[in-house]
TrEMBL record:
A GO molecular function held by the record: dynein intermediate chain binding
Pfam families named among the record's database cross-references: Tctex-1
Record GO biological process: microtubule-based movement
Name of the protein: Dynein light chain Tctex-type 5-B-like
Gene3D superfamilies in alphabetical order: Tctex-1 (3.30.1140.40)
Organism: Biomphalaria glabrata (Bloodfluke planorb)
InterPro entries membership: Tctex-1-like (IPR005334), Tctex-1-like_sf (IPR038586)
Superkingdom of source: Eukaryota
Gene: 106052570
The organism's taxonomic lineage, starting at the top: Eukaryota, Metazoa, Spiralia, Lophotrochozoa, Mollusca
Recorded GO CC terms: cytoplasm; cytoplasmic dynein complex
Family assignment from sequence similarity: Belongs to the dynein light chain Tctex-type family.
């Protein structure tokens, strides 16, 4: 059963307008129109879940598994390639695939952040730094590098537990 009414909401009271008559109050008004009044479903139609109060992970991500994922992914994408100006387009592809493979480990309540750096090896240096706040008991990271054919890549996966 739907009933439509025009209403005016003032700071502390609600005035219902019938047939276009108006009421003015000295405080600011918010006008809403065509509000729909719906019947509330019976309590048996609502599903209720108990709170889990889970403060820690049931399963922890292994750094060695993540390092293996990084190593395999870097070799898969970069073997036989040399660094060119358009090599940077592989960075996003590699990072997305690393994140997807980390999620496939099936560890619930973890957020994965992947970073990949790619560049030429000829007399170049790269300095990377990252900072974040985390719990060393449940959060972890893994890193691995690849260097061949004038190309280097460094990838890092951060695993952060979300409560």
């Amino acid at each position: 059963m739907n009933n439509r009414k025009n209403s005016v909401v003032t700071s502390n009271k609600m005035t219902v307008l019938d047939g276009g008559s108006s009421t003015t109050n000295r405080s600011a008004m918010i006008i809403t129109s065509a509000q729909t009044v719906r019947e509330t479903p019976a309590p048996s139609q609502f599903k209720q879940y108990e709170n889990t109060y889970q403060l820690g992970p049931t399963k922890v991500t292994s750094s060695s598994k993540l390092e293996k994922i990084i190593d395999e992914t870097l070799k898969e994408h970069l073997t036989g390639r040399t660094y060119t100006n358009d090599s940077s387009r592989y960075v996003k592809l590699i990072a997305d695939q690393l994140k997807q493979k980390a999620k496939e480990l099936g560890v619930p309540r973890y957020k994965y952040v992947c970073t990949v750096a790619l560049g030429p090896t000829r007399s170049s240096t790269l300095s990377m730094a990252s900072r974040c706040v985390w719990d060393p008991n449940v959060d972890t990271f893994a890193e691995n590098s690849y260097e061949k054919d004038g190309l280097f890549a460094t990838a890092v996966i951060y695993c952060i537990y979300t409560e």
